[in-house]
Structure formats: C-alpha cells, structure tokens
Amino acid sequence: MGTEESQKSQPNIDNDPEIEIRRDDKRGGWITFPFIAGNMMGLGMASSGLSANLIVYLIKEFNVKSIKATNISNVVNGCLSLAPIFGAIITDSFFGCFSIVSISTFIALLGMNLLTLTATVHSLRPPSCTLFSSTCETPSTTQFSVLYASIALTAIGVGGTRFNTATMGAYQFDKAKDRDSFFNWYFFALYISFIVGSTFVVYIEDNVGWGWGFGLCAVANGFSLAIFLLGTRFYCHLKPKGSPFTGLARVLTAAIRKRKVAVASESREYYYGGGGVAKFQSPATPTSSFSFFNRAALKTEGDTHLDGSLAKPWRLCTVEQVEDLKTLIKIFPVWSSAIFLHTPIAIQGNLTVLQALSMDRHLGRSHFLIPAGSFLVFVLLASAISLSIIDRFLIPKWRDLTGQHLTPLQRIGLGHVLSIAGMVGSAIVESRRIHTVRSHHLDDDPYSLVPMSALWLVPPLVLVGVGEAFHFPGQVGLYYQEFPASFRSTSTAMIALLIGIAYYLSTGITNFVRRITGWLPDNINQSRLDNVYWMLAVIGVLNFGYYLLCTMMYKYQNARKVDVAPSSENQSG
Prior knowledge:
By secondary structure, the protein is mainly alpha-helical. The protein has two domains: 4-240 and 337-553, Up-down Bundle (Growth Hormone, Chain: A), CATH 1.20.1250; 244-318, no CATH class. Helix content is 63%, strand content 1%. The chain contains 17 helices and two strands. α2 (33-51) packs antiparallel against α7 (164-171). The radius of gyration is 25 Å and the shape is globular. The two termini are 15 Å apart.
C-alpha cells in the first residue's frame, strides 16, 4: 500500500520527547500491563454485556419495534464511540490519562447500577407482553428517561476510558516494537472481554434474568476500577500541556491575518519558540506543502518583544504548530476512508441480531439455544484468534520473507478486503434464508421461526472479525505514530470518532433505505436484507478504491528507526 515510504512505518524513538520523559522515570514497562488490561477488560465486559443484547432488551422488556430498536442501538453505540474523543481531548488538554480513566470508570459504574435498577424495579419498565404483539404498552416518558440516563452515564464512563487506556499503555514503553506488541495484546484482551460479555453475560440476561446480567456487569465495572487503582505506583504519568486545539486555531487565525505577507525561505524569518530553536526537532524551515500556513510562523514587526518572547499569540505561531496542522491535514483523507469501512459493519451487526431471532438457534441437536445477541461474538472470537496469529506468526513471517515490516496502511487495506467479503457472504446467506421463508410460506407470519440454522450467519461474521484484526490495530497504530506528539491521546481516540460517525450513518442509511424501498419492514420474513447486504458490499468496494487513492498520495511523516536512519529530509504529501 502506498509508496516506498510506506515501508517506514513507526516513530523514530530518539526524536520523541515523550519517550525521553519516560526514560528518566523508572516506572512503566510490561509490569503495568495487567493493571491497564484489567481495567479495560472489566469495562469491556460490562459495556458489551449492555450493547450486545440491547436490541433484545428493548424488544422484550421495553416493547420497542425491531427496526426502531436497531436505530436506538446504533445511537447508543454511536455515543459509546464518540465519547472517547471528548475524553481524549480533555485528557490531552487538562487532566492526563490516569485521572480521566479513574473518574470515567466510576461514572460508568454509576450508569451500570442505574441500568440494573431498570431491570429489577418493575415500575421502571412497561408491563410484559407477548413478543411482537400489537397490543404491547409503550414505555412512559419517565421509564425511557431513566433508561437513557443509565445508558448515557455508561457511555460517558466507557468513553473516558476506551482508547485513553490504550494511549496510557503505549506511554509505558520506550521501543516501537514493544508498543506494537502492546497494541496487539491490548486488543486481544479487549476482544476476550467482549467475548465474555457477549456470551456468558448475555446468556445470564436471557436465561437467568436481566437484573442478574446487568448486576454482573456492574460487578465487572467495579473490579476494573479497583485493579486500575492498584497499579498507581507502577504507572509512568505524563502531565498534559494544554489544549493542542488552541494551537491549531492560532495557526489558522495567524495565517489568515497574514495572507498578504510573502512567504520567506530563510529559517531566521520564522519563529521557533523559546530559545529560537526548533522545538521537538522541527525542520529548519516549514515544509513546502500547504505553504499558505507557513505565514503563521513568519515573524513580522510587533509579533515579538525585544527579548524574542511572543507578543501576539494569535498573530504568530511556532513552526512546530504549523507543521502539526499540516500533519493532521495530510492524514485526514486516510482517516476519512475508514468511515465507510465501519458503517457496513455496524449495519451488519444489527441486522444479524434480527436474522438470528427469526432462525433456529439450537446448537446441533441439543436443547441449548444460542442467544441472538451472542452471535456477534463470532466476530470477536475471529478477531482475538487472528490477532494472536498475526502477532506471533504472520508479522514475523512477513518480515522474514520481505525484509520489511507489515505497515499500518497495508494492515488496514487487508481489513477493507475482508470486510467486503463478509458483506458478500451475508448477502448470500440471507438469500438462502429468504428462499427458505418463501418455500415454507412463512412470509405473512412474523412469529414463525425459519427452519434454517442460525449458524449459517457465522462464516460472514468470521470474515469481518479477521478483517478487524487487521484494520483495527492498524488504524490505532497509524494514528498514534503519525499524529503530533501533543495529540497522543486524541490520536488513538480518532478511531472511536469514525466508528461513532459510522453508527450514526448506519442509522441514516437504514432509515433512508426503509423510506425509499420495501427492503426493511418490521416483519423480517417479508424483508429483502440480501439487497441491503449487496448494497453494503458495493459501498465497500467504492470506499476501498478511495482508500487506495489516499494511500498512493500519502507519505508517512515518521519513520521506524530499525528500517531507516534518522533523516532530516522533509516529507510532504
């Protein structure tokens, strides 16, 4: 994927000022992993126990129609994904990772406790009724308010920890290869927690009671807080240095105010901050790409005091701040291509639950019934197994055969291809299900189960899961290495932002398809979900073409030390 520079894929450690801070601190290293992973796994189990079975909970306990339930689930998952961005911004700007993760875990605990009350206190939910009956009583405003409040608290809490824990974990390591390994094992542990939440917890919710299931989530949440605090003395703590977004705003403002000033070529004409040297080893002069913004660092009369200190911060910026903005602009197209990578996956996940509810979910000839909300666990299982194979076998073999590292862009590209294959597989399986429905004349009966095993849904989900094992860590690793140092927490949360956007887009696409076609009625036995899946496959192919175009134009801004010697050559893209 990309040009020759795409083989040079990780930060130059010697040029990373944050690494130098960690080297002076005796803390950090792999001793912190059990505490960070324990926090993440407890919250992962709690959040997946809610999100994996939320559609079923809304349909069975709150009498919500199926398509509306999927839309609510999309909004909730969107909130769970967007919240990390705000948590990361606050982390980078004000409080640091440790404080935000601790406070957010406690907020999530409050949300899970309130959600448990909705399942145990009868007055907080409508009277039970026959599934899919038209006479079911809708929830009151108060009941919906309490439900949404519990979900909102959980989303805020999970949002403050998810990806902030990944950033905090990455801070603990000096070497790029250790950070690579950390990201792989971090996501392996994350998927394991999702698997437990989506199987064991969902089974408890369906067969023992919703109160017991959500109560178990609350216990897992409390455990995650306790184990995280136990590791306090081992962590390497990095203090925030103020909002990096203020610097970006200053660059934009200063460049616009100096738009008529000619761009200079001499380094002495530019401002580098205190001491007159380039902080964080910025280039001697700003790079030629997006040269309009170079004016923001160009010194003019009155911008500085006689001693060289800054006099007008909204008229003059450092070269580093200018280059930070350029870096974000360069990576934006690659980042945006992942939105329509995650949108089909979000739609597939919700539709799979509806399909499973209408199919035979018995495991073989046994009486064990697989919960509909647990089918998405096959995505997680495939991802977890694939991550370990990728880390221990594929990446070393790739390095032995090619002499180069498997780059983040290459991993993401493989994820695109496998995701498209998963959508095609889902379309084929749904075509078979629809054929079975019609051959048994079940079109007009939404209560009849289709005599077809729901295990047919598994192979497409496995393809998507293997794809996630490639593109998910690939994206996090790419953003962590390529974003400016001041955006470390925000960088790893950028994937959460695009997933959140994808969930909201999936809601919009679902409503749009429902409005202009007859593919998505409430009676799934009258639907044409196969057409929906084919549409998603086409979207995936078009988006993959856009991604390839972006990678051909993109050049890595940071080179891996083990691949190349440090170079002062300017990179532009």
